[in-house]
Amino acid sequence: MPRRIRGFVVLLMCFIVAACDSKAVFDSYKSFPNKWHKDSVASFEFKAPDTVNNYNLFINIRNNNDYKYNNLFLIAQLNYPNGKTVKDTLEYKMAKPSGELLGVGFTDVKENKLWFKGYNTSFRFEENGKYQVILQHAMRQNGMVNGITDLEGITEVGFRLEPVE
């Protein structure tokens, strides 16, 4: 298949996949094209859809073969409109024991949709207004006190909000 047609087919498939995904109330990404510095944060602001329904909150990670760890530690902070802050340290599995990256994707870039809130207990927004999610990596080498300054292999970090079905 000629290169031009192949590129068009890939682009068309991306649009079709994006168009079929109508569940998201909020879905946004921050790009880290080379490395994710330990002091860089991915910040997402959104308005609470309502205070009646339950929602699932997800952290989306896009990584490539430069990611050389089997897990990922994140510090996730949820800021409420009234000033309340909830901060969690989260750990996610990113690779099989064989080293093969988890996630979906046809190329060396894999996407992982990771639970943030709503997995065990339904999440309901307590108040109307603007919320903020702040994500920062907290990766460390085994036996080392200081964190990894530049985390390679994470290309994008996203936040997604979906209604519970």
TrEMBL record:
Keywords: Lipoprotein, Signal
Spans traversing the lipid bilayer: none
InterPro entries assigned: Motility-assoc_lipoprot_GldH
Signal peptide residues on this chain, from the entry's feature table: 1-19
NCBIfam families from the UniProt entry: GldH_lipo (TIGR03511)
Name of this protein: Gliding motility lipoprotein GldH
